[in-house]
Write a structure and sequence with these properties.
The protein has eight helices and seven strands. It has 227 residues and is α+β, with helices and mostly antiparallel strands. The radius of gyration is 17 Å and the shape is globular. It starts with 8 loop residues before the first helix and ends in a 10-residue tail after the last helix.
């Protein structure tokens, strides 16, 4: 099927896992009014500012740690994190601990990302082919929290496709570690990200072509998640 090559689920999960957050993905935004949000989340937990286009500045609280974790996920899952070394350095400089930044300078880690960047989905995206990179958390759990560090587990879904590859969805779980250093900083993952749990597809559901998939999503905004 040359016109509708599928992205293997393992490749999708591995691609997102190699950017360290696994499938911990989401958005957390500040409306600027300090008001309560549905579900008990507060708008003033952050983010409060941007660095190199990346949202940072979170409250030193349980809610602030969750907001940081959910917001950092999509940043680390962007294709340019894998394909553009300069942009990757900016991202890590804004959200990661100094120790993690040094880990990403390791020759083996750099080589792994360079190899991943050669996967068809990344090559197609880098070459400007129409693409879909949509990731979102479906649920989270705070595994540990103190004023200095936190661990947050998330079950998430990711959809990716570029060029002629038909977009493929994958589900995964992962746990990330955050440390307080004037802001919540991403300090790496806890253990390995895992596939699933994955629900069965709806009986009778038909697969959408890559062209129709992208066309119907065009112009849609991402959802916003707060703790």
């Amino acid at each position: 099927m040359p016109e509708e090559r599928r992205v293997k689920t393992g490749h999708l999960v591995a691609a997102l896992a190699l950017v360290v957050l696994g499938l911990l993905i989401g958005w957390a935004t500040d409306s600027g009014d300090g008001t309560e949000r549905p579900g008990g989340g507060r708008a003033d937990v952050g983010p409060t500012r941007t660095v190199d286009g990346i949202s940072v500045g979170y409250e030193r609280s349980r809610e602030g740690a969750v907001a940081a974790a959910l917001n950092y996920g999509p940043v680390l899952a962007r294709p340019e994190f894998v394909t553009d070394a300069g942009r990757r350095a900016q991202i890590l400089g804004a959200i990661a601990t100094p120790q993690l930044v040094r880990q990403y300078e390791d020759k083996e880690r750099v080589a792994s990302l360079a190899s991943l960047a050669q996967e068809p989905i990344y090559r197609a995206t880098r070459q400007g082919s129409p693409s879909v990179w949509q990731t979102t958390p479906l649920g989270y759990r705070v595994e540990r929290y103190t004023e200095d560090d936190a661990q947050v587990s998330t079950w998430s879904m990711a959809i990716a496709g570029a060029g002629r590859a038909s977009p493929t969805a994958g589900f995964g779980t992962g746990t990330v570690r955050l440390r307080w250093d004037g802001d919540w900083k991403y300090a790496g993952d806890v253990g390995r990200s895992e596939d699933g749990p994955t629900p069965a597809p709806l009986e009778g559901a038909s697969r959408t072509s890559s062209e129709d998939f992208r066309g119907r999503l065009r112009g849609l905004e991402g959802l916003h998640y707060v703790p």
